[in-house]
Design brief:
Number of strands: 16
Distance between the termini: 59 Å
Number of domains: 2
Radius of gyration: 27 Å
Protein name: Sulfatase N-terminal domain-containing protein
CATH topology of the largest domain: Alkaline Phosphatase, subunit A
Membrane topology: Multi-pass membrane protein
Main location: membrane
Subcellular location: Cell membrane
Low-confidence stretches: 4-14, 16-23, 291-295
CATH architecture of the largest domain: 3-Layer(aba) Sandwich
InterPro entries: Alkaline_phosphatase_core_sf (IPR017850), PEA_transf_C (IPR058130), PEA_transferase (IPR040423), Sulfatase_N (IPR000917)
CATH class of the largest domain: Alpha Beta
Strand order of the largest sheet: 7-6-8-2-9-12-3-13
Helix content: 40-55%
Length: 510
């Protein structure tokens, strides 16, 4: 037995040594391949990983022959991609929405984002950092035909995921800068509304702008959990088919609340300047951040209101303020005497990530904590709308309230019974949001099944407040023509809504 075991040992250890030598010989190739895959996934091109990841692998092999090239060229691009990994893994490749979110967020939202990142993403990010460091320090492939290899490396890099990443970063930032410049310029411009007729139907108009609420999780739109009990039963008009302009707040709202055609934007002609031109008193109440009148897409519109109050100032000390804190401010605005009609806009945090931080209590307590808190934010928004409607009724004046959400979310979790809802632009549910009107003279609960684009919201708004202008048609949701070829802003381009994928809602398990 001993001799037999000794024979096994004599065979095993030399074989192990040979395997180790072979592994060390090809370790640089394995590391480079792993680095290519992680970088491609991390910058948001997982769907085309074989092609763009393959080109990156070849580029990293060919360009490793020159140390100065690695450090001056690959290092800075790879470092930015490594830092982008968590965002890219969850939200995808750079687009105007992601750039706007990164630049307009406050420190509290950054901390919330970091704490919400799954542990596996942190682990993958650390592996990427380790492989990238190893590549820069140790990997160096020698080639005989250096000029040919260099040119080949550059060609491969041009078609790689990192090249796409750089291109999307540049284009997205360029689009964002154009948007911000247009919004900044609008602050100092006078709206050129040509009012043909102004005859408001109601004494008080209330516009509530929700956040990250997709309609298919609302019981008022058929979800089996009673997430919006008030909206599911109260008299009103619910549009089943309203589509947001874009999938991120900073891109969606400027194109909803002002005249816009895709990437083209005319921010000075917005809901506030239109209401001002109609001699209405305009009041903007917000639980979203206000860094400065020029800093965010929404604050650049809000600044035109005759009165504006922001609960958050966008600095490090910004509190996690509940949407309920807006209710006393609303009652004060409602009580202000005014001979004409008033427009009161409330911009709430609604269902903004992280969901559990938005609510006082998780009222469902389901196993799927993320979705349980998400539905609780729906119930909270529903309660806030109910309270506002009751306050409006108490005045005994005529009123109309309109509610919509800026965009939806999609589920990126691959685990059954567990959700992770995030921003995205690849699914229909990123754009399918509620549009609801409740008014003192609406006495029935009506569901209107009709696809309507938020790019037409200015026409809806104009009709709602009883104003006709030379700049745009004044049409209500019934009068808008049926459009089966609605386009939405996905990434940096307009795409057909019907071409997007489907992300079905998740039914909670207790």
């Amino acid at each position: 037995m001993c001799q037999k075991h000794y024979a096994y040992v004599r065979i095993f250890f030399p074989s192990l040594f040979v395997c180790l030598i072979i592994f060390m010989k090809y370790l640089d190739v394995v590391i480079t391949l792993l680095l290519s895959l992680l970088l491609t996934i991390g910058v948001g091109y997982e769907d085309t990983i074989i092609s763009v990841g393959g080109y990156l692998f070849l580029a990293l092999i060919f360009l490793s022959s020159k140390q100065w090239l690695k450090w001056l060229f690959i290092f800075p691009i790879g470092l930015i991609a490594t830092l982008y990994f968590q965002t890219g893994y969850i939200y995808g490749h750079p687009n105007i929405g992601i750039v706007a979110s990164l630049l307009e967020t406050n420190k509290r939202e950054i901390i919330e984002f970091l704490f919400a990142i799954p542990i596996k993403v942190w682990i993958l990010n650390l592996i990427l950092l380790a492989t990238f460091s190893y590549y820069l320090i140790r990997v160096e492939f020698e080639f005989k035909w250096r000029k040919v290899v260099f040119v080949s490396g550059c060609i491969c890099f041009y078609f790689s995921s990192l090249s796409l990443f750089v291109s999307h970063c540049y284009n997205s930032t360029e689009h964002y800068i154009k948007q911000i410049d247009a919004l900044k310029n609008s602050i100092h411009q006078s709206a050129n509304w040509h009012i043909l007729k102004a005859k408001p139907r109601y004494k008080t108009y209330v516009l509530i702008i929700g956040e990250s609420m997709r309609k298919d999780y609302m019981s008022s739109y058929g979800y089996p959990i009673n997430s919006t009990p008030f909206l599911a039963t109260t008299p009103g008009i619910l549009v089943n088919g309203y589509l947001s302009t874009a999938s991120h707040t900073a891109v969606s709202l400027p194109r909803t609340l002002a005249i816009s055609h895709g990437l083209d934007l005319h921010p000075v002609n917005n809901i506030i300047t239109l209401a001002n031109a109609a001699k209405m008193k305009t009041i903007w109440l917000s639980n979203q951040g206000f860094i400065g009148q020029y800093d965010t897409a929404v604050s650049a519109i809000a600044v035109h209101a005759s009165e504006k109050k922001f609960l958050k100032k966008g600095n490090f000390l910004t509190n996690n303020t509940s949407d309920y804190a807006l209710l006393p401010l609303f009652k004060q605005a409602l009580a202000q005497p005014y001979n004409g009609s008033k427009l009161i806009v409330l911009h709430i945090m609604g269902s903004h990530e992280n969901f559990c931080d938005r609510i006082k209590k998780d009222i469902y307590n389901f196993k799927d904590k993320d979705l349980s808190c998400y539905l609780s934010t729906y119930n909270q928004t529903d309660t806030i709308i109910k309270t506002i409607v009751n306050d409006l009724k108490a005045t005994q004046d005529s009123y109309s309230l309109m509610y919509f959400s800026d965009h939806g979310l999609n589920n990126v979790s691959t685990i059954k019974g567990k959700t992770q809802l995030v921003h995205g632009d690849l699914y229909k549910q990123n754009y399918e949001v509620p549009l609801i009107e409740i008014a003192s003279d609406i006495h029935q609960h009506t569901m209107l099944n009709k696809q309507i684009s938020a790019f037409d919201f200015m026409s809806i708004f104009s009709n709602w407040i009883g104003v006709k202008t030379a700049q745009l048609p004044s049409l209500n949701v019934y009068q808008l023509p049926q459009n089966k070829k609605i386009q939405v802003l996905s990434g940096n381009q307009m795409v057909l809504f019907k071409s997007l994928k489907n992300d079905p809602d998740e039914i909670i398990q207790r």
